[in-house]
Structure formats: structure tokens, C-alpha cells
Specification:
Elements: H1 3-42, H2 51-64, H3 71-89, E1 93-97, H4 103-112, E2 117-121, H5 124-132, E3 138-145, E4 149-150, H6 152-158, E5 164-172, E6 176-179, E7 190-194, H7 195-200, H8 202-208, E8 213-217, H9 220-229, E9 233-237, H10 239-244, E10 248-251, E11 261-268, E12 278-285, H11 292-302, E13 307-314, E14 322-329, H12 335-347, E15 350-358
Parallel strand pairs: 1-2, 1-3, 7-8, 7-9
Antiparallel strand pairs: 3-4, 3-11, 5-11, 6-9, 6-10, 12-14, 12-15, 13-14
Helix pairs in contact: 1-3, 2-3, 11-12
């Protein structure tokens, strides 16, 4: 058999596999439509998106993946299939901190897939209000960065909001310096970016553009839009923002920490069920007296529940009075977590479960 004949056989095999994939994906989509009908018949207000169910499916895909594609790549492919099938059941509106081209939009698409309708909003407060009003099914907001720490606006909003945390997204952040076509780096006099992005690129900017004015704006996409409109302006933003606003990337990956990662939260009106690998986020407050923080944390140690994060924020009620945001491993329905929360309710002035949700899969 000649090399050309062998190549033709492989291509014929690929064509046959593509036909089979097309048939199977279409069959899966029809099953999704059947699920939607059963749910609507039983409950006109049925919930179609189930974060715990999706997390379980994606974990199973990763565990059973035979290669040669790596497990994460295979899970991403299935995420898009699931996103398209879900859109047949109920198209989702997902609010995010905009405008288009922000890392928050990238996080929303990573979590929900590209078959959702993303709604850009100008502030974190607006994302919360959009979901609270029912205008959006879910929202995506940043909560912490691996180098610059917590996003305080997000934590503060949870003090008043009835929304639940339904999921989390971890996104590797690559910052690029960009400007209008024809503008060289030495011609950049002003650099726009979100204040956290400026902080995450501080060392690079000090070494390479010490003379440029650094101007914080509400988002990196806003920065890219301003760089596209102004002479002598540059922006630090994502590749998506560069493409969206037709900017040239002058220097790529200028973040100071090579493993720079931001964590985002998915917020919605309904709680998520247990997926088997979950986190629970809590808001706690207690009177300011010696040993009060110890008494808040001790029930977790006694119940053998592991803490993954703790942050304090002013309560905005009394000067020098604080609330604590705590993340723990496990779901609020797990016995250990339930025991710890019950013990906390005897000690703390306030115990608010912000949500139990699947740990990030992708």
C-alpha cells in the first residue's frame, strides 16, 4: 500500500467518525429537549441549569478520558456541547463586569460555554442587581487575585444581597500592553487599566515604561476602548480586548507573577446541590472581644472541616466592627459542615451561608 493510499484511508476513517460524532451530538441534543419537556410538564418554573450535575459530568469525562487529548481539553469540548444542549432547554442570560472583552467575560464563557448570552454591566453592584431582579439568570464577578488579594466590592455586596454563590471559576490571567496600530511603545504617554492589573504589572512597568502615567479605570476593556480612541495612550488588557478594539499588542504577558490567577464567583438565586467535591462560603460576625475569632474557627477544627480562605471586612455598621468571610471544604448538607455551622450559630452573632457550590473543574 502506498503512502497516498494509507493517507486516503485515514481521511476516510476521519470522515466516518465525524459523521458518527454528528449523529451522537444530535441525539444528545434531542435528549436535552426531552428533559426540558419533562421538567416543564412537572413544573413551569423548573430549573434547567444544575451546576452540581455539570461538575459531576465534567469530572467523569476527565477521569475516563483515554487520550491522546489531555483531560482538561476533553472537558472543554464537552463543556461546549453541554452549553449548546442547555441552550435548547433554556437560553441563559449571564451578567458580567463589562464591557465586552474583560477577563470576567472570559470567566463566564469558560464556566458556561459559548452558547449563553452574556450581558456586560458597568459595575459589580449592577451585576448583583441584574441577577436579583431576575433580568439575568446568573452573574459572574471577580473575588480574588493570587497576587493582589481580595476584590473588596464583591465581598461587601454579599452583606446585603440575598443571592447565592453557585460556582467558581479560576482563570489564568495574562496581561498585554497594547495601543493603536502604528504606535510604538516609546510613544505611549498614558497607560489605562484596572487598578488591580496595574498593580499586577508594576515591576514590568517600572522597568520598561517608568515615564508613562498610569491611570486606573473601571475595567481593562474600558482601558482598551480608551486606548483605541486617544493618541499617545496604551492599555493593559487581555488578548480578547485587543481583538475587540483593534489594538496591536506591543508586549505580551507582562504580569509580574507567571502564575497570576483570578478567582471568580458565579451568583444566582438558587442554591446548588452537593456534587461530591464542593466548597461552602460563609459570612460571620461576632462581638469584638478577646478570643472571638478563635471561637469562630474552633467549630471547624472540632468537626474536622478544612478552611481554604478567611477575609475580614468592616461591617459598615459600627466603627472597628468586622465581619469575616470564610471558605471551607465541603457542602452545607455534609454532616461535618452541618455540625460546624450548628455550633457556630450558638457562638456567632451572625451566620450567613453565602452558598455551597462545586469546586472549579476547569
Amino acid at each position: 500500500m502506498s503512502e497516498q493510499e494509507s493517507l486516503e484511508q485515514i481521511r476516510a476513517r476521519i470522515d466516518a467518525l465525524d459523521d458518527e460524532l454528528l449523529r451522537l451530538i444530535s441525539e444528545r441534543a434531542r435528549c436535552a429537549q426531552a428533559v426540558a419537556k419533562v421538567k416543564r410538564d412537572a413544573d413551569p418554573n423548573a430549573e434547567f441549569y444544575r451546576p452540581e450535575r455539570e461538575a459531576q459530568i465534567l469530572r467523569k469525562i476527565q477521569q475516563r478520558n483515554p487520550g491522546p487529548l489531555d483531560a482538561e481539553e476533553m472537558a472543554r469540548l464537552f463543556r461546549e456541547i453541554m452549553s449548546a444542549c442547555l441552550a435548547l432547554e433554556e437560553p441563559l442570560n449571564v451578567a458580567f463586569l463589562g464591557p465586552e472583552g474583560t477577563f470576567t467575560q472570559a470567566a463566564a464563557l469558560k464556566h458556561f460555554g459559548h452558547s449563553v448570552h452574556t450581558v456586560p454591566l458597568g459595575a459589580i453592584d449592577e451585576v448583583f442587581r441584574e441577577v436579583e431582579s431576575g433580568a439575568a439568570h446568573y452573574g459572574v464577578v471577580p473575588v480574588e487575585n493570587s497576587t493582589e488579594g481580595v476584590v473588596t466590592h464583591t465581598l461587601d455586596r454579599f452583606m446585603q444581597s440575598p443571592l447565592k454563590i453557585c460556582g467558581e471559576v479560576a482563570l489564568r490571567i495574562h496581561h498585554h500592553l497594547m495601543a493603536k496600530p502604528g504606535v510604538a511603545r516609546e510613544q505611549v504617554k498614558r497607560i489605562y487599566s484596572h487598578q488591580q492589573s496595574l498593580a499586577q504589572c508594576r515591576e514590568w512597568l517600572d522597568a520598561n515604561l517608568p515615564q508613562a502615567e498610569r491611570i486606573p479605570v473601571s475595567s481593562n476593556a474600558v482601558a482598551a476602548r480608551r486606548a483605541a480612541d486617544e493618541e499617545g495612550a496604551g492599555a493593559i488588557a487581555s488578548q480578547a480586548a485587543a481583538e475587540r478594539y483593534a489594538l496591536n499588542v506591543l508586549n505580551a504577558n507582562i504580569e509580574d507573577a507567571p502564575d497570576n490567577t483570578t478567582r471568580f464567583l458565579v451568583i444566582g438565586q438558587r442554591a446548588s446541590g452537593p456534587s461530591g467535591r464542593d466548597k461552602t462560603s460563609l459570612l460571620l460576625s461576632t462581638r469584638n472581644r478577646p478570643g472571638s475569632l478563635y471561637r469562630l474557627l474552633e467549630p471547624f477544627a472540632r468537626a474536622d472541616v478544612s478552611l481554604t480562605r478567611i477575609e475580614s471586612r468592616p461591617s459598615h455598621c459600627v466603627n472597628w466592627d468586622y465581619v469575616f468571610f470564610i471558605d471551607v471544604e465541603g457542602h452545607e448538607e455534609d454532616d461535618k459542615v452541618r455540625q460546624a455551622i450548628a455550633a457556630l450559630e450558638q457562638e456567632a452573632d451572625l451566620v450567613k451561608v453565602l452558598g455551597s457550590y462545586p469546586r472549579a473543574v476547569l
